[in-house]
Write a structure and sequence with these properties.
Blueprint lengths: L2 H26 L6 E8 L3 H19 L3 E8 L1 H11 L4 E4 L2 H9 L3 E10 L1 E5 L10 H6 L4 E4 L5 H12 L3 H5 L2 E5 L2 H10 L4 E5 H7 L2 E3 L2 H4 L3 E8 L5 H11 L5 H7 L3 E2 L10 E7 L3 H15 L2 E7 L1 H8 L14 E3 L17 E13 L19 E4 L5 H12 L3 H4 L3 E5 L7 H5 L4 E5 H4 L6 E5 L6 E8 L6 H11 L3 H6 L3 E2 L28
Parallel strand pairs: 1-2, 1-3, 6-7, 6-8, 12-13, 12-14, 16-17, 16-18
Antiparallel strand pairs: 3-10, 4-10, 4-11, 5-8, 5-9, 14-20, 15-18, 15-19, 15-20, 15-21
Helix pairs in contact: 1-3, 2-12
């Protein structure tokens, strides 16, 4: 390793030790405040964060009548992550490069995350260097005093090394390094006082320190997203999320980021206690109710949830003025099946999958007609209950299944009733009023001891549930976090008989809609 880089690494190690000692000091006076959050923040983001913290502390005391203190520690993104892993005492972690947040999540250090802004590395120029240095090639081939952040622990150093490696210049550039520094602010200061001729820093840091800079195509490709994460071991996650939402609100924290030359993301509208609307197909109810309750408690938000058939929900969407959440339009929607998404695609994002549940044949335990396949449902005298094809999802999917197998005309004479809801498929079989029905496997589990279940080998014998977010939502980031929260609930879904499809593309399940199904049609409450 280059000796200068080794010195930089030693500086980082010293910073870790000092930060750990500071952590002990913070613990000793924690009781002075009713609310206190420990916040590890990338040094390059210091200026907007300091302004946002002052704004938040003032807002919190005025609104809640008690003080809150955000105890912030600045440093390189990698150094801070290492400190989090060792000290295990933080509530929030803001990194200059989203890859650190991703790494922290993989390591179980960070739970949720909220994007804030973007920035890109540039070449900052000392006075007199304008015109002489125009890009990375000049730094590699010229005789200049060049500085870089420690490439293993500071986000801007990682970005610079990545860009140079991609164009095959890292080894040559490494020989040109005059000094390495632990933070991007140290680099900017060196450029400003003329201690070095050039340094690779963030564009926003150059703007804040009022130093000239030039861009380079290789560096442009290293544009990074500034993201704040809530630590997995925080003892006050609701308070931490409250502050993180403040940071990510356009009229609150993000306003300070804009003042300091950041390109900000589309943040959520600020509300002390956000209130959102959520639609869900009834098939998801047993799985989603405990998930939604836990999410509301952790986030400190209110979710107005409507569980109903997707036909009814889609029809209701058309009646809500301007698709406005203030008038009841859902911020998020968990559908019964992917084909219900097509009629509302103009109002919702592409979406991603959550789960699927098989459609099965259900008979009584003794199965007197020896039904083992769809073909067996054509036997004379078999009394069959199915869902109504225009009133509930399972009815439409059942009709599609029969048509795909070429059995609809033969089974039709045996159908004694078409029910408006998937929840009404199993009871007629249990009571003896029907010999067989087609039901969601998840609906059979409560009566498993009294039923015989026949699985169907067909791609059409399933309902697949996608999650999507409304374009008009003022709380998109909150909905994205809800989706991530659902993603931690695989065991709940599988215990209820669902297959786990979290994160998979909707297109994988987007098969042809059944001819008889009309997703916009109305249906009875709870129909799925």
């Amino acid at each position: 390793m280059n000796a200068k880089v080794m010195i930089g690494a030693m500086v980082v190690a010293l910073a870790l030790l000092l930060a750990a000692l500071a952590g002990l000091s913070r613990m000793s006076d924690r009781g002075q405040y009713a609310e206190r959050l420990i916040f590890y923040c990338a040094a390059g983001i210091q200026r907007p964060v300091e302004a946002a913290i002052a704004d938040y502390e003032r807002y919190y005391e005025e609104t809640h009548g008690r003080p809150v203190l955000i105890d912030v520690q600045y440093g390189g993104s990698g150094t801070l992550l290492s400190q989090l892993q060792v000290a295990n005492d933080g509530d929030l972690y803001l990194a200059g490069d989203e890859s650190y947040i991703e790494r922290a999540r993989e390591q179980g250090v960070v739970h949720e995350s909220i994007p804030l802004a973007t920035m890109k590395p540039v070449i900052a120029l000392a006075e007199g260097m304008e015109g002489a240095i125009n890009g990375l090639d000049d730094l590699v081939n010229g005789d200049y005093r060049v500085a870089i952040a420690v490439p293993d622990s500071a986000a801007v150093g990682v970005a610079a090394k990545s860009a140079l490696e991609r164009i095959g210049h890292w080894e040559a550039f490494e020989e040109k390094i005059t000094v390495t520094k632990p933070t991007v602010n140290d680099l900017a200061n060196d450029v400003k006082i003329g201690a070095v001729d050039a340094a690779i820093i963030w564009d926003i840091t150059a703007e804040q320190f009022e130093v000239a800079y030039v861009t380079d195509p290789a560096l442009d490709e290293e544009t990074q997203r500034v993201t704040v994460g809530i630590t997995a071991n925080s003892e006050q996650p609701t308070a931490a999320l409250h502050f993180a939402r403040f940071l990510g609100a356009p009229d609150r924290g993000l306003a300070h980021f804009e003042e300091h030359h950041f390109s900000v993301v589309e943040g959520d509208r600020w509300a002390d206690t956000p209130e959102v609307n959520f639609f869900s197909g009834g098939v998801n109810r047993r799985a989603m109710e405990p998930i939604l309750e836990a999410f509301q408690q952790r986030e400190g938000v209110r979710i107005n949830t409507v569980f109903q058939g997707c036909g009814a929900l889609n029809a209701q969407l058309e009646t809500i003025r301007d698709q406005n959440p203030d008038f009841g339009f859902p911020d998020g929607y968990l559908l019964c099946d992917v084909y219900y998404l097509d009629p509302v695609r103009d109002w919702f994002e592409q979406g991603s999958m959550v789960s699927s549940t098989p459609i099965v044949i259900v008979t009584s335990k003794d199965n007197p007609h020896n039904i083992q396949s769809l073909e067996d449902l054509t036997q004379p005298g078999v009394r069959i209950v199915v869902g109504h094809p225009t009133h509930c999802t399972i009815g439409g999917l059942t009709e599609r299944l029969f048509e795909a197998k070429g059995l609809l005309a033969d089974i039709e004479p045996n159908i004694i009733e078409r029910q408006p809801s998937s929840g009404m498929m199993v009871p007629p079989v249990v009571s003896g009023a029907a010999d067989a029905s087609l039901a969601y496997y998840s609906d059979t589990l409560p009566e498993r001891d009294s039923l015989h279940v026949v699985h169907i080998d067909s791609e059409y014998a399933q309902a697949a549930q996608p999650f999507t977010v409304a374009y008009t939502s003022n709380h998109k980031q909150l909905m994205y976090r809800l989706y991530d929260f659902i993603g931690q609930s695989e065991e709940i879904y599988e215990e209820l008989g669902f297959g786990w499809t979290m994160g998979r593309s909707v297109e994988e399940f987007d098969v042809v809609a059944p001819a008889g199904a009309r997703p916009g049609a109305s249906s009875g409450e709870g129909a799925t």
